[in-house]
Fold this protein.
Amino acid sequence: MAELFAAVAAERTGIASEPPVDIDERTAIFVAGMAGAAGTFVAVAGDQIVGLIRVKPSHHGFGDLAMLVHRDWRGRGAGSALVGAAIDWARGQGLHKLSLEVFAHNQAAIALYRKSGFAEEGAAPDSTGGPAANSGTRSSWACRCDAGALTRAP
Ligand SMILES: CC(C)(COP(=O)(O)OP(=O)(O)OC[C@H]1O[C@@H](n2cnc3c(N)ncnc32)[C@H](O)[C@@H]1OP(=O)(O)O)[C@@H](O)C(=O)NCCC(=O)NCCS
């Protein structure tokens, strides 16, 4: 998972983490997350983790969502499957809303979130001018996951 995260961070476009990623440190973050209340799901091809999604519940019944898919495996449905798994998990946990921030230039992610039932809520704090991986206008998106409230496209 940490190696996948590092590979996607090195692209400097989709996620707001500046490379190089410290693999040991990132592994510890994932391990701590899995020991706590967060929900983590992975997409696997053979013996390789090619995608992951993580929902971190807040004290207010929200869940913060973060995800990525390896460049070589995009456009094949892994992202959609991961979002579906995260929404189902969030519902099972009684969370009523999932939220995330996405770069305005990240059209693939925006299309995925939109088709999964997310709607734009507004602009996120401006990070333009930060380190390369952090630069760009971002927007906040969310979907409701209360029983019956979610409209997820088939
Ligand atoms: C965003 C991301 C997770 C999508 O994962 P994926 O496995 O490619 O997603 P899917 O194959 O399930 O595609 C889901 C939808 O995204 C849209 N999509 C996928 N690739 C696209 C592209 N290149 N351009 C525009 N839309 C695209 C389509 O609407 C697609 O739905 P469809 O297949 O029904 O038409 C992946 O591109 C990624 O990891 N990017 C880098 C990291 C990142 O940006 N993470 C999100 C940070 S907010």
Notes: The chain has one domain: 2-144. The chain has a mean pLDDT of 90.
